[in-house]
Amino acid sequence: MGYKPPFERTPEIDNLCMEIAELVGKLHPTSSLSTDPTLHRELRIRTIRSSLMIEGNTLSEEAVTAIMDGKRVLGPAKDILEVENAKRAYGLMGVLNPLSPDDLLHAHRIMMDGLIEHAGCFRSRDVGVFDGDALIHAGTPANYVPQVMADLFSWLATTELHPLVTSCIFHYEFEFIHPFADGNGRIGRLWHTLLLSHWRPVLAWLPIESVIRERQQEYYRALATSNAEGSSERFVAFMLHVIRDALLPFSIPEDEHESRSRQALDYFSKNPKGTVAELAALLGCSKRSAERLVANLRKSDKLKRDGSARGGTWIVSG
Question: 40 and 148, same structural domain?
Answer without folding.
Answer: yes
